[in-house]
Amino acid sequence: MALESEENQGDEMETTAAKNSLSDITAARLQKQPGNSALGVGLEARGVHAWFGEKHALSNVSLDFWPGTVTALIGPSGCGKSTFIRTLNRMHEFIPTAAMAGEVLLNGEDIYAPGVDVTKIRLKVGMVFQKPNPFPSMTIAENVLAGLKLAQLKVENKDDLLEECLERAGLWSEVKDRLNTHGGALSGGQQQRLCIARALAVRPQVLLMDEPCSALDPGSTLRIEETISQLSSTVTIVIVTHNMQQAARVSDYTAFFLSDGGPGQMIEVGSTNEIFSRPKDERTENYVTGRFG
Amino acid sequence: MSSTTTQIPAAIPPKREITTKPRFSDRVFRGVVTSGGLSSLVILGLILIFLLFNGYNTLKTQGLHFLTSSNWQAAINDSGQIDPKNSHFGIAAMLIGTMVVAVIAVVIGVPISVGAAIYLTFYAPEAVKKVMVSAIDLMAAFPSVLFGLWGFFVLEASGEYWAKLLSKYFSWIPFFKLPAPYVTRSPFIAGLVLAVMIIPIVTSISREIFSQTPLDRMQAAYALGGTRFAMLRAVAFPYARSGIVGGIMLGLGRAMGETVAVYTVLNIVYQVNWHILFSAGGNVASMILLKFGEASPYEIKALMAAGLVLFILTLIVNSLANLIVSRTGKSGR
């Protein structure tokens, strides 16, 4: 690890992830219902509720995100999936009237515990937004390394990190000759991959993606999906998507959210195969087969 | 099929003129807003013509001396008439005084204003914000003579202490040297008063521009583990920089043109004075106010010329500011 962050729990995580093959994880998941007890590994949501002012937006969501997996959150608009993903790195509190209940555990520790430095949480749980949002005052290279500057991290070899992150985001070959030009000149899909590279540069353990392809054309979407597949071996990915084909293509697990007019709830979670081929809940089946939503 | 009908012309046709006939109501409205938009330009132009017309004669007889000398004397000959040959008008001291006082105001006022704007936009609780914003707006509407009186009676006393302290420890900097031990009614005190006067406008404009910082960029900065300070540096400042420069220029314009407050506080002396703590100075506007009451018609023309110079100086400063903004401002937006 080139990063000299104070706590290097990411290291331990990666080794844990290596030990747990996907079958082990699936086995563990079968034994343990999500939300029963702290596993002390990866990212876990325990009975999460969310409010905006008086509006109860999300009710009692418990969900585990195992290291090295991609989890897709699907559901119709207003079902609370974006709200939920934003509670996972404490971006939720960015909205002035927002409130939450429950726990979000990162490696077994509550990220909402008193005295937690929220900036350290966001370093470990990175985020990519719906609309590509590179910093227009910075060049492509500066954008990728912006997180180091923002979080005041030191790195031994910036050029290596720059190349590695752009490579992992699938953008290196397209921008390697113009690293010192401004990011605003890139296409929407390239900007979004730049934002992914920027998120990767601080070496997050988890990457949250809030509808990362909804503003992009099909070609760019495909590139991002390839990027997600490549990243999933090293980073835990949680992706909110409206596109069910995308969920089916990129994710290992899928969680279906729904609101019946009240707060959003998680209806069902399971392996993506299961959710799309033989969902347990009728409402899930109606949604994934396109009968509503 | 004859060949004449199937043949497609190979030449590129001439460009067509694209026109539209606006509705009558639209034309009327267009006329109303156009005249509104042009009126400020017309008024400005008329004032410029008025100053040129009245000041031209003085500028012609005094020449460059009007800008380079500090002698202001309307001579009267034996028969009690104005003697143009022996009259000398020069505003060098006042021009330099204008700049000195305005720069002091900006140096002191801008950091306070930008700090206040950042606090109000990114830190203040909603209730505090509301109260403070209306307080600052009230401050902008405050009559300048009251600032002058406050400066004269209140700031003078405490300013004296600071002036002595500055001259004691920083007299090796030429600006802080004291040629004689008189520290009251100095450009420093006048600059302080002007700083207080420009704070509302600079704060208000900076706050406005900071509050428009794009939310998605702020979120990006926070999501990368940035603190609020880091976010401010990476996102808010690059975005707001050009707007803040614009606000500073408006403040500088106000400081350069301020009349009554400077007149009340400053000891107006016709001598170029770079020592900001020393009790001597002046600016063009306050000199006009000082002389206007007792001036002969001939001298009033000289005052008009002084006004013209101030007008042009303000124009130059504003153009420079626009140049700076257009050179550096775009990248952060």
Describe the structure.
In chain A, helix 10 (218-231) links the parallel strand 7 and strand 8. The longest helix of chain A has 14 residues, at 218-231. Chain A is globular, with a radius of gyration of 18 Å. Chain A is of the alpha/beta class and 293 residues long. Chain A has one domain: P-loop containing nucleotide triphosphate hydrolases (Rossmann fold, 3-Layer(aba) Sandwich), CATH 3.40.50.300. In chain A, helix 9 (188-200) packs parallel to helix 10. In chain A, the strands form two sheets. Chain A has a six-stranded mixed beta sheet, with helices on both faces. A four-stranded antiparallel beta sheet of chain A has the order 2-1-4-5, with helices on one face. Chain A has 13 helices and ten strands. Chain B is an all-alpha fold. Chain B has a domain at 96-284 and 320-332: MetI-like fold (Orthogonal Bundle), CATH 1.10.3720.10. Helix content of chain B is 70%, strand content 1%. Chain B has twelve helices and two strands. In chain B, strands 1-2 form a two-stranded antiparallel sheet. In chain B, helix 6 packs across helix 7 (187-211) and helix 9 (228-257) packs antiparallel against helix 12. The radius of gyration of chain B is 27 Å and the shape is globular. The termini of chain B are far apart. The model of chain B has no long low-confidence stretch (mean pLDDT 87). The A-B interface holds A 89, 91, 94, 96, 119-120, 122-123, 126-127, 129, 131, 133-138, 146-147, 149-152, 182, 195, 198-199, 202 and B 126, 214, 216-217, 219-227, 230-231, 234-235, 238-239, 331-333.
